[in-house]
Specification:
The protein has 13 helices and eleven strands. The chain is α/β, with parallel strands linked by helices. The strands form three sheets. The chain has a seven-stranded mixed beta sheet with strand order 1-2-9-6-5-3-4, with helices on both faces.
Length: 363
Amino acid sequence: MSLLMHTLHVDLGERSYPVYIGRDLLADSDLMAQHIRGIQVVLVSNDTVGPLYLDRVRAALGERTLITEVILPDGEQYKTLDTLSDIFDQVLARGHNRTTTFVAVGGGVVGDITGFAAACYQRGVDFIQVPTTLLAQVDSSVGGKTAVNHSLGKNMIGAFYQPRAVLIDTNTLQTLPRRELCAGLAEVVKYGLICDEPFYRWLQEQMPRLLAREEAALAEAIERSCTNKARVVAADEREGGIRAILNLGHTFGHAIETAQGYGQWLHGEAVAAGMVLAAELSASRGWIADSEVLALRELLSGIDLPIAPPADMSARQFMELMARDKKVMDGRLRLVLLRAIGEADIVDDVAQEELEALFAPSP
C-alpha cells in the first residue's frame, strides 16, 4: 500500500500539475492512471534503474495499457541528440499516436531527455515524471525544463514543457548510491541559500538524518525543496526573470561539467563547487560574511561534496565556457549571487577583474 505524505501543485494555469511525494507510489495504479488519457504509453528508463523499478511501474499501468519500453544507457554522456533520435525510432516503429503518454522513470538525464522527446513527438504529447534520484526529485523533475547536451554546452538544445504529474517515491532513495544522494543534497542546500533561510538552518541541523536516509527527514526536505521551486516557477515559467535564481552555482558548475567531460563530475558535485564560488564572489562584494562562506564550505564538505573547482581549470577556461552559457544575455554574463542567506540576486555587472580574482590561487 502506498503512503502519500505530501501533495503540492505547480500553479501554471491550464498547465498546472500535481507533485506527489510518498512511499511506494511507483506501484500506485490509481495515482498513475488518473494522469494517462490514452492506452499507449512510452516507458523510458535506463539500464541501471530499469531492472530495479520497471516491473512495479508496468504493473501499475495495468494490462489494458499498450507499453513500449525504451531503455537508455546510463550516464550524462548519453544525453544527446543521437539518443533522442533512438527514442523516436522506437516510438515511431511501434505506431504511437498523439494520445500516447511518455513516462520517465529515472534520474535527471532520463527525465530531461524524455520530456524533450514528449515535447517534440507529434508536436507535443503528455508525459509524467517519476524521478528516482534525489537530485531529480527536488529539481529537474519539477518546472518543465527539458533538454539534451551539446559538446559545446550543457542543456543548450531543449524546450520548456510541463509534465502532467510528478510522482516522487521516497523508497527509491534507499537504493541510491551514496555519491548520488550527496549530489542531490547540493540542490537541496541551494533552495535554502536562494530563498528560504529557515530551511537552510534546518539543513545545517538535520543533515545527519538526511545522510542516514531517515524517511521523515527526506520527505520534509523534498517537500520544502519542491515547494520553493514550484513557487519560483509559477512566478516565472520560462526564466525571463526571477526563475534564474534557481541557477545559483550552475553557470560555474556547467563550465566544470563541460570542461571535465559529461559524467566525470555529477551535476550536484559541480553545482556544489559553483555555489561556493558564487558565495565567495558575494562575500568579496560585502554582501554576505566570510563566516557564512566558511559555514557553507563546512556543510558541503560534510556531505562529501567538492568545495573547489578542478585544479586543472584556469580562469581563462572558466570565462570562455561561461561566455557560451545560455544565461548570457546580449553578450553580458548573468550570475546568481547572494545578497544574504535566503536572498539571491541576478547580476550582470561582474567585471572580468572580479572573476580573475576569484580564480586566482591563494597566496
